[in-house]
Amino acid sequence: MNPQALMDGLVTGSMIGLGAIGVTLTYSILRFANFAHGEFLAWGAYIALAASGALGWLAPSLLAPIGPFSFGWSLPIAAIAAIALTGGLALLVDAMLFGRLRAQRSTVIILVMASFGAALTLRSLLEFIFTAKPAYYTKALQIALPLGGGLRATPDQLLSLGLAAILVVAIHLLLTRTAIGRSMRAVSENRQLAGVVGVDVRKVIRTVWLLGAGLAAVAGIMAGLLVQVRPYMGLDLLLPLFAAAILGGIGSVPGAMLAGLIVGLAEAFAVQFVGAEWRAAIAFVILVAVLLFRPQGIFGRPE
Amino acid sequence: MSIELVAYGAFFLTMALTYAIMCLGLNVQWGQTGLFNVGIAGFVAIGAYVSALLTTPDAAGRFGGFGLPIVAGWLGAALAAGLVAFLIGALTIRLRADYLAIATFGVAVAVQLCALNLELVTGGPFGIGFVPRPFASLAGDPLAFSLANLGVLVLVVLALYLALERLLRSPWGRVLRAIREDETAALALGKSATRFRLQAFAIGGAIMGLAGAAQAHFIGFIAPDNYMPMLTFQVWAMLIVGGSGNNRGAILGAILVWGIWAGSAGAIASLFPPGEQARAASLQIVMIGVGLCAILLLRPRGILGEVKTVSRHIGRLARSAGKPVSEP
């Protein structure tokens, strides 16, 4: 077996994990499976693409690669803009759609269906603006560095892994050590009761969208940097995201990250046996297995 | 009126009616039972491929080609799609409501992958051609051919409609709605919610499989591209526009939304240069997406909302007791 699958799996897995954290937070606090979450990844990637291109046009010196990486300062600056704007997009969708449905006391499944409609709208808008042609942040080629043990990784991949690890620890600390984190957990336990004891539920909902969409933007930019930027990247990642969120246990941030890594590694290793064209089926197999044997996930509580 | 126009009208209506069958299937799952299926395209594809395999003549280099009559293909399609729906339902229906949605989404992805990659069975990306068409002997006369096909689909939709209406008013249909409205109360009356939901989900899946088979035989050619998530979305839009829970609404919505879809596709083809058409087509999807969300927000009942159905005995009981039937 090729040990390189380990590195590929970890890199893909950390992207899936970051996306799955958003899914699991929306699911546990707003209580519905958000089919539009994949589109936040794609929008984050495209906003960064547009911003980075604009920056490079204004100040070509920003395009010069930083150190060993393939991209210049334009991408990190664009990434910050993309995180903020994707968060804004999520708030906008909530204000126009989900918030109104919540106010009408719609059932969960109406919210799920609305998210399905929002996903198609957002994806097709991307296709309309940027066309279906794949795009890239840089054209620079990178040489993979040997890490020992037959493993190789490009500097971009190592940076992505490190960034994902830092973000997961930060989100975990935010949820467990800060006031807003405690409020979020309280709302996820019982929204009415939390509201009664003075938790600002609307602020919690805003935070959930900003966090989820911001992380999705980071994951999307990573996917764009390491693979390519396409309008359908969100749709293709949606099933792995759901599989990871359910495998990790709904509501658990460390669970989502761990499960994301498991899904990524399973894809990378399985592809060696069944061929890359079956990659998308791996997440489905994992999903079915979890629903069969442990529907509450690794860290979840039984209903 | 020219013959071409009538032939086109018949073609349009026949396509719309194949969507109407999918809508009727979805109405059993969602409208009557409240089960959310995001994998309609998957179940339709299963039906189309199974029927094509059963009825096409033997082809070199491909499994299948049993050359069975078309009716056998349609029955096999309904059985296969119903079985897959039963299995996926058995896995998820006892869990949270949106797990079923996620699992059906997975089914659509998996079916799409199989259609693309199992080249020995499905013909891969090029699909299966020469799916036998009903009344192929009439193909020389476009008018008679389209009208005969339309006739068959009208009969199928009518038969399904009558059967489903009867089912809806039967004790079985009442239990389904009781479970949808108040599961605890239905459980207290000794009805197994899981079992009834599973039956409804399998029946709905079988109807979608039948629709896929009907469509495949009408077009005469199937490929994985026909069964993208877009299809799922269209069928949902049709049911929501027409009115979920209402079988007539399902049929009306299918014809209406398919009309808007075909009309806007025609407008795009004539208004935009060929290079820009793929791009303009994505605007078409945006339009339908915004429309679906707007209907969910503004008129969740659709055009024809659900008709209140109660047992026909209630009216008789009330009359015999000398009291007027109270209308809500």
Care to describe what's here?
The complex is a heterodimer of chains A (303) and B (328). Chain A has 11 helices and 2 strands. Chain A has helices at 4-30, 37-58, 74-103, 108-130, 155-177, 179-189, 191-196, 201-226, 233-248, 253-274, 279-293; strands at 145-148, 151-153. The longest helix of chain A is centred in the first third of the chain and has 30 residues, at 74-103. The termini of chain A are far apart. Chain B has a domain at 3-227. Chain B has helices at 3-32, 40-55, 70-92, 97-117, 119-122, 142-169, 171-181, 183-188, 193-219, 229-242, 247-271, 277-298, 312-320. In chain B, helix 1 (3-32) runs antiparallel to helix 9. The longest helix of chain B has 30 residues, at 3-32. The N and C termini of chain B lie far apart (48 Å). Classes of the chains: A mainly alpha (303), B mainly alpha (328). The A-B interface holds A 32-33, 35, 97, 100-101, 104, 106-110, 112-114, 116-118, 120-121, 123-125, 127-128, 131-132, 235, 238-239, 242-243, 246, 275, 277-278, 280-281, 283-284, 287-288, 291-292, 295, 303 and B 34, 36, 38, 91-92, 95-99, 101-103, 105-107, 109-110, 113, 116-117, 229-230, 233, 236, 240, 278-280, 282-283, 285-286, 288-290, 292-293, 296-297, 300.
